[in-house]
């Protein structure tokens, strides 16, 4: 008799330092470089308060992720939590939403990379933005395939560079601190809250850490800590950048800027600052693309283990110890969306998917608290009334509010409904295939 060849497993390479940087690498991505000006126009000099409010909102869902990841340290992340709380259908739906979000986000940020890269080499050669985006996706899909250690090393270097750009802004603003009224609200407290809703997108990315659980040492303890550390560190940097930016330019000028951080740096350092910030933004967008590709492929790997029809997504490369088929599939789909060029509406539908996911995750925590009160929890959220967790409940309320605040464009909600419907249909098909396989074996 022949022995069945043992399936290789993912390699556990990541410690607390690498896992935290993975979260920071996505959080400190392109969002802060693009959103700062728009938020300043709404909040005024109270922009820093908007960042604190946004961080507070992110923390509610971040804590739910931290507790759930300590209980179920799997790469399938949200799919695992949803399945334990509400059954396989909801678990698959969460995976579906996360995979869609990751693919579209990778394409959107890659297009941003293409714009920066094309601008930097414009004097030598003309490169269309879409071609730059495809180059970015292919290059970092290869890094993703080559290994989690190599992906982590690039992420750490890039995060230090993009974080260095934010620290540069803070240092430049030190001598300007105290020159404006930091409580001045351009449109009252309502404007400050509205800016916080916009800024919230600059914090999204912390949840991606859970998809690295099976490549993290002692994941049930490290992943929750990495989640919390990444939110805290990014909040401190964001608040200080906001204070420095309004101090140097004032909220009116900052709010009118199309390249806010570049304008802040140029006001102190001169025109050469534009080139410096463009290079930093290049690393920022490249790093965000890499980490989205990594985490999305791991979600595909995790969900591939649950359904026979797509089990090929869970196949691990013998030498590189990475889910290479899931990596290749993620690359192909991301390139397909990048070829569309302008995916603004599709990107807005992904925001719908993000908030819908956060609502379900907070609900999953409450459900699991009720169903499995004695389940071991290496990390447990404080502020409880019996099994009922107050932060998770507020997380549901706030993210529901943000979901309906998202836009007045009916197409976003229609697109979100279609996305959910397709996910449920896909689940029914895959589950049917699983049942057929079981019947054949009998």
Quick synopsis:
With 442 residues, the chain is an all-alpha fold. It has 16 helices and two strands. It starts with 15 loop residues before the first helix and ends with a helix.
Describe the structure.
- The chain has 442 residues and is mainly α.
- It has a single domain, classed as Amino acid/polyamine transporter I.
- It is 73% helix and 1% strand.
- A two-stranded antiparallel sheet has the order 1-2.
- Strand 1 and strand 2 form a beta hairpin.
- Helix 1 crosses helix 9, helix 3 runs antiparallel to helix 9 and helix 5 packs across helix 16.
- It is globular, with a radius of gyration of 22 Å.
- The two termini are 22 Å apart.
- The mean pLDDT is 89.
Count of helical segments? 16
Largest sheet descriptor: 2 strands, antiparallel
- CATH-scheme architecture: Up-down Bundle
Radius of gyration: 22 Å
Structural class: mainly alpha
Order of helices and strands: HHHHHHHHHHHHHHEEHH
Principal-axis shape:
globular
Would you identify the CATH H-level superfamily? Amino acid/polyamine transporter I
Low-confidence stretches are: none
* Domains, number: 1
Strand content: under 5%
- CATH class placement: Mainly Alpha
């Amino acid at each position: 008799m022949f022995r069945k060849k043992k399936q290789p497993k993912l390699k556990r390479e990541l410690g607390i330092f690498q896992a935290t940087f993975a979260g920071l690498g996505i959080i400190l991505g392109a969002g802060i470089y693009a959103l700062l000006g728009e938020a300043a126009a709404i909040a005024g000099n109270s922009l820093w308060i908007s960042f604190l409010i946004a961080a507070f909102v992110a923390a509610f869902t971040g804590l739910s992720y931290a507790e759930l990841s300590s209980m179920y340290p799997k790469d399938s992340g949200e799919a695992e939590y949803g399945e334990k709380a509400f059954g396989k259908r909801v678990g698959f739906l969460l995976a579906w939403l996360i995979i869609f979000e990751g693919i579209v986000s990778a394409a959107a940020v890659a297009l941003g990379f293409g714009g920066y890269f094309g601008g930097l080499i414009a004097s030598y050669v003309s490169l269309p933005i879409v071609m730059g985006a495809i180059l970015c996706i292919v290059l970092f899909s290869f890094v993703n395939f080559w290994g989690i250690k190599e992906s982590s090393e690039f992420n750490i270097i890039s995060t230090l560079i993009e974080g260095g750009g934010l620290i540069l802004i803070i240092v430049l603003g030190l001598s300007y601190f105290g020159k404006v009224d930091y409580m001045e609200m351009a449109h009252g407290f309502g404007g400050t809250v509205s800016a916080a809703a916009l800024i919230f997108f600059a914090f999204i990315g912390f949840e991606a850490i859970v998809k690295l659980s099976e490549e993290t040492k002692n994941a049930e303890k490290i992943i929750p800590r990495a989640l919390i550390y990444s939110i805290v560190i990014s909040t401190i940097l964001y608040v200080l950048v906001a204070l420095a930016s309004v101090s140097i330019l004032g909220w009116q000028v900052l709010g009118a800027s199309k390249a806010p951080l570049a304008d802040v740096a140029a006001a102190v350092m001169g025109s050469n600052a534009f080139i410096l910030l463009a290079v930093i933004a290049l690393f920022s967008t490249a790093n965000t693309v890499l980490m989205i590709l990594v985490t999305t492929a791991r979600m595909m790997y995790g969900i591939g283990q649950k359904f026979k029809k797509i089990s090929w997504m869970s196949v691990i490369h013998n030498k590189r110890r990475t889910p290479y088929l899931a990596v290749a599939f993620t690359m192909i789909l991301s390139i397909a969306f990048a070829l569309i060029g302008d995916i603004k509406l599709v990107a807005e539908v992904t925001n719908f998917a993000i908030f819908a996911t956060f609502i379900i995750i907070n609900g999953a925590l409450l459900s699991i608290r009720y169903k499995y009160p004695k389940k071991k929890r290496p990390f447990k959220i404080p502020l409880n009334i019996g099994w009922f967790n107050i932060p998770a409940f507020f997380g549901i309320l706030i993210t529901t509010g943000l979901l309906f605040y998202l836009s007045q464009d009916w197409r976003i909600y229609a697109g979100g409904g279609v996305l959910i419907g397709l996910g449920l249909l896909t689940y029914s098909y895959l589950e049917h295939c699983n049942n057929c396989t079981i019947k054949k074996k009998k």
